[in-house]
Design a protein that fits this description.
Pfam families: Glyco_hydro_1. This is Family 1 glycosylhydrolase. Keywords: Glycosidase, Hydrolase. GO terms for molecular function: beta-glucosidase activity. The protein has 400 residues and is of the alpha/beta class. The protein has one domain: Glycosidases (TIM Barrel, Alpha-Beta Barrel). The protein is built from 14 helices and 17 strands.
């Protein structure tokens, strides 16, 4: 077995990711805040203060920069910027602009996500993505973000994991609660088309703001693996849940690949992982190689030389040594894909912080631990190791 590090490509993004609702706290005008506090909610616990990163973002960026990371992906909250329909908050736009400038001052390149699962209450009340005029409303919000992203932001993500938005919309229409033991529920067709239209409109708005911004979106990749005789079943299962969204990225400047585990598909459909496999705190199979499958499949579908960026990848665990091992395995896959000629332009871990994982604080994904009582931040050993790779600008590569 040999260890041959792979140098970062020129301009390689090396960082960590977060999402506004999961770390900011008190996003009281968002649809998720309403869901968390409704009388009949199935959500385990509310986000409340989350990590209080709305006030502590400087400390978070200081820590990432000190560790050696060069990039930080964070989202801006539509519900803060447009708390009531057609009414835009100059104070909140200025807040997010300060974050952009703060990142740059610390040597962190900001990647800004415009939508990460949450929408304003008023947008949800109108019917959400499938309501009349929803695409125009999203485009108007994107245009209003010009003061935040017009200068110093090289990469913008329009919508995070649109396939999961469509999946959750399908569940809501059917009245389903929870996910099946393996695979994803059927996405809602109408929502699929709506978010694709919203993405295309947002791309145009971003390019109008600044033609130099690299704009794309990020897909939740399940690393579908066909068992013998199930190739056609796998393709039919995957397309509405993943490939249609990858195909919609053609013409974008990059596409985000987000993967955590794999899904095996047999002749009858998804097959649950066996009882004896190692599982993470989210009960997903521990499978660091997932990101390699996701990168290769995405490149195959989108075609050409489309730039790929790993915008999320990580593990929820209480054992930081397993976190470090997971990242080592995942980065080995990234290095291998680079060696094979894939145009991979960045790797951003999920997540910079322990955060609110859409119903619970228990799944700890963070490179940086957060005490939810005191909000004290503590960089884990895995963060120190991962950040150090940014200084040497090399990916670990094990061959043998």
């Amino acid at each position: 077995m040999t260890h041959t590090p792979v140098p970062f490509p020129e301009g390689f993004l090396w960082g960590a990711s977060t999402a506004a609702h999961q770390i900011e706290g008190n996003n009281t005008n968002s649809d998720w805040w309403v869901k968390e506090h409704s009388a009949d909610t199935h959500i385990q616990e509310p986000s409340l203060d989350a990590c209080d990163s709305y006030h502590r973002w400087r400390e978070d960026m200081d820590t990432l920069a000190r560790l050696g990371f060069t990039d930080y992906r964070f989202s801006i909250e539509w519900a803060r910027i447009e708390p009531a329909e057609g009414q835009f908050s100059r104070a909140e736009l200025a807040h997010y602009r300060r974050m952009v400038e703060g990142a740059i001052e610390r040597g962190l390149r900001p990647m800004v996500t415009l939508h990460h699962f949450t929408v304003p209450q008023w947008f949800e009340a109108r019917g959400g993505w499938t309501a009349d005029g929803a695409t125009d409303l999203f485009a108007r919000y994107v245009a209003a973000c010009a003061p935040v992203i017009s200068e110093g932001v090289s990469h913008v993500c329009t919508i995070n994991e649109p396939n999961m938005i469509a999946v959750m919309a399908g569940q809501a229409k059917r009245g389903d609660i929870g996910f099946p033991p393996a695979g994803l529920p059927t996405p809602d067709d109408e929502t699929t088309q709506a978010v694709i239209a919203a993405h295309h409109a947002a791309v145009k708005e971003v390019r109008t703001i600044n033609a130099g911004i690299q704009v794309g979106w990020t897909i939740a990749n399940q690393a579908y693996q066909a068992l013998p005789g199930a190739e056609d079943v796998t393709g039919a299962y995957r397309h509405p849940r993943e490939d249609i969204f990858i195909e919609a990225a053609r013409g974008d400047d990059w596409i985000g690949v987000q993967s955590y585990t794999r899904t095996k598909i047999g002749p009858e459909g998804p097959i649950p992982a066996s009882d004896d496999v190692e599982r993470t705190l989210t009960q997903w199979e521990y499978y660091p190689s997932a990101v390699g499958y996701a990168l290769r499949h995405t490149a195959e579908v989108v075609g050409g030389d489309m730039p790929l960026i790993v915008t999320e990848n990580g593990i929820a665990t209480s054992d930081d040594s397993r976190r470090a091992d997971y990242y080592a395995g995942a980065l080995n896959e990234v290095a291998s894909a680079l060696e094979d000629g894939l145009n991979i332009q960045g790797y951003l871990a999920w997540s910079a912080l322990d955060n609110y994982e859409w119903g619970s604080f228990k799944p700890t994904f963070g490179l940086i631990a957060v005490d939810l009582e005191t909000f004290e931040r503590t960089a884990r050993p895995s963060a120190v190791w991962l950040g150090s790779l940014g200084r040497i600008r090399e990916l670990p590569r094990t061959a043998g």
